[in-house]
Design a protein that fits this description.
mainly alpha, 5 strands, two-stranded antiparallel ribbon, 3-stranded mixed sheet, globular, 553 residues, 22 helices
Length: 553
């Protein structure tokens, strides 16, 4: 039965319409037609307009009365996210929005990965987006300059790293010129081909201008310290986790959790190779040709096969997976920055959910034992199940609710899903379990590193880095102790943590909150995890405090 729209649903839809108007790229992410080729206003005026619009909706959200549990979540999330946005704006986070993975520098380019390119109209929209990119970049630069004037620039390390990233989009042959060539190869008319060429040149010039601004205007004023301090970190953490946590207690827990992960991984290493250390077990596995893939084509095919089997088997046994969710595409990303990520389906599922692997330049060998758990994390029962179900439940969740993303909920669920797959027997091979623990250990180490550096906390003796407060340089020495990845991967990951405070711990902290919620739910309702998972995911993404309030009133 379709649920009738309530006043809070209507307010959620109104807020979504406002976001679609002020942030046109959201049309692309949702697969909605309209505003093709446009960007959000990233200038100070644009940020103020978004803040004012949110304040108006916040006033209405506080006044309405929830009519059911769905409304309870909608109201709580409207209030939470809009209050958070006001706090973030007051701290000037929009003035220092620069990091190596998730800032406008990446977003302005990455949206091209999702735009359709099947028809001439599609390519016309691509040309308009290329034409509009310099204007969007100019607004962003204006906000960075406002941060410099206010004494609120990003850290110097992020400025230099992002300048190097942006520099890869500058020159006569770039992602943008390759995109224009794809349009020509698709047979677009000569006039449109010329527009694509001109847009590609303009986009590359915009990135060239950004590099100059970063190095000449921002870098001289950027602090060398990577840590952002407790005030910014508390707000950032609240946003990523969806609830307020005790930062010092969480740091202490992170140190203990890392110790537990190390001990568990050392025990499993003995199963892989009796008498071996973790490093020796890993070296042994890396010499096993049966567990190694050669080239990105083989990686993509393996990812797709593992994903397809998980969808088919879990859809029969442990989860209700609607038919239109059973298509999940695994792709190699066009970037080479490192990282694996998921993009959700369009609202009508005409564009399926996709798992992307951004393979660093020069990497050609991949270990299946290390990455099997990652496919479960990004796919089913991880992000694809979670995000796909939220998109699917249009009969239950208003449009805005279906677009919400919260890292503690989402990434916490994905780590929870990895452990669940181990519990279900999918990681019984000690090598595969060692790979899962490798990831879990890394996520625990990130809790310690991230809180330690950004809050300037004392390094624990177990870190082996001496005494005194954490620094950014300590992070680069610490992470290689707890991950078995390439130097390029470690560099990218640590730079990500240093520039995106609070995000990395949200994975492991979110997992902790999910596991605590599950255990408390089972104590009340019994050991029926299929029902727990169904009821929890039907709520869509929300802050973990909100999810707990609804499932355990």
């Amino acid at each position: 039965m379709t649920r009738e729209q309530t006043p809070l649903d209507a307010l959620g839809e109104q807020w979504l319409d406002t976001l679609l108007d002020l942030q046109p790229e959201l049309h692309v992410h949702l697969g909605r037609p309209g505003r093709e080729g446009e960007y959000a206003d990233l200038s100070p005026d644009g940020h103020q307009q978004l803040l004012d619009a949110g304040a108006a909706v916040l006033r209405q959200a506080r006044e309405l009365r929830p009519q059911d549990d769905v409304d309870v979540v909608t109201q709580a999330e409207l209030v939470r996210t809009l209050e958070l946005a006001a706090d973030q704006h007051a701290l000037g986070l929009w003035q220092r929005d620069l990091n190596v993975i998730a800032s406008p520098v990446q977003d302005l380019r990455d949206v091209f990965d999702l735009v359709p390119t099947e028809t001439e109209d599609d390519w016309s929209a691509v040309a308009r987006r290329l034409e509009n990119l310099p204007g969007a970049m100019a607004g962003y630069v204006e906000s960075l300059r406002a941060g410099v004037r206010a004494g609120n620039p990003p850290a110097l390390r992020q400025v230099r790293e992002v300048a190097a990233q942006a520099g890869k989009l500058v020159g006569s042959r770039t992602f943008f010129t390759d995109l224009a060539d794809q349009g020509r190869a698709a047979g677009v008319p000569s006039r449109l081909a010329a527009a694509l060429d001109a847009g590609a040149v303009g986009a590359a010039e915009a990135y060239s201008g950004l590099v100059q601004v970063l190095l000449d205007e921002v870098a001289p004023h950027a602090p060398e310290e990577d840590g952002v301090g407790r005030d910014i970190y508390a707000v950032a953490s609240r946003g990523f986790i969806g609830s307020t946590i005790d930062l010092d207690e969480t740091y202490a827990w992170g140190v203990e959790e890392l110790g537990r992960m190390v001990a568990e991984q050392e025990a499993v290493a003995q199963e892989v190779l009796p008498g071996a250390t973790v490093a020796e077990a890993i070296a042994h596995l890396e010499q096993d040709p049966a567990r190694r893939l050669h080239g990105t084509d083989a990686l993509q095919a393996w990812m797709q096969d593992v994903s397809d089997r998980a969808v088919e088997e879990l859809g029969r046994t442990h989860f209700d997976i609607p038919e239109r969710m059973r298509r999940l595409e695994c792709r190699i990303a066009p970037t080479q920055e490192g990282g694996i990520y998921y993009t959700g389906p369009s609202e009508d599922f005409s564009r399926p959910g996709r798992m992307w692997w951004s393979v660093p330049e020069g990497e050609t060998e991949f270990d299946t034992w290390r990455e099997l758990t990652t496919v479960y994390h990004e796919g089913v029962p991880g992000h694809h199940l979670q995000i796909g179900l939220a998109t699917h439940h249009s009969d239950l969740l208003n449009g805005w609710r279906r677009t919400i993303w919260n890292s503690g909920h989402g990434e916490g669920w994905a780590l929870y899903a990895e452990r669940l797959m181990a519990d279900l027997g999918y990681l019984d091979d000690p090598a595969d379990r060692l790979g899962m623990l490798d990831g879990q250990r890394m996520r625990a180490a990130r809790v310690v590193l991230d809180l330690g550096v950004h809050l300037g906390l004392e390094k624990p003796p177990s870190a082996g880095l001496g005494t005194g407060p954490w620094s950014g340089e300590d992070a680069f020495a610490f992470m290689p102790q707890h991950v078995n990845m390439s130097d390029a991967f470690v560099r990218f990951e640590v730079n990500r943590y240093l520039g995106w405070p609070g995000q990395a711990p949200s994975y492991k902290v979110g997992q902790r909150l999910w596991e605590d919620l599950r255990d408390d739910w089972v104590a009340v309702h019994g050991d029926d995890l299929r029902t727990f998972h169904r009821d929890a995911l039907r709520l869509g993404t929300a802050g973990m405090a909100t999810i707990r309030e609804v499932l355990l009133p």
